[in-house]
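Please complete every field before forwarding. Incomplete forms are returned to the sender.

SECTION A: IDENTIFIERS
Entry label: holo-133
Bound molecule: zinc ion
Molecule representation: SMILES string

SECTION B: INPUTS
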Amino acid sequence: MILYDLKCADGHRFEAGLASMFDDNPRCRCGAETSRVPASVRQLGTADTGRSREEMPTTWRGIQQGHPDVVRGWHREMSRREKLEEKHPELAGDRRPVLAHEGAFEGRPLRAGDPLATKVAQATFGTTKEATA
Ligand SMILES: [Zn+2]
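SECTION C: PREDICTED COMPLEX
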């Protein structure tokens, strides 16, 4: 997750988290296209978004066999993260269910609602061009 400062043609500025520097900029809430602006210098410390949901342990070993302090710590941290994502939905990332993530989709998981022909073409031929079907 990379945080970018974005600005639309109407001058609205906001911050958004993108999974990759090659991702398209999200549109402004007014609907206009946005461009990236150099991050401003923060004078009063930096904002810490904490760890993301992807970093949350998913195994028994990951939470040290259910150690209460580890579980409590993750619960506290993820509760904080959830509140942050409610306030800044762009930090939540793509939460659509993953339909396929193996084989051809290893690099770019297929998610519910994705245009199937385009995703298969990308996974198979590595093209990033949108299919026109
Ligand atoms: Zn705008």
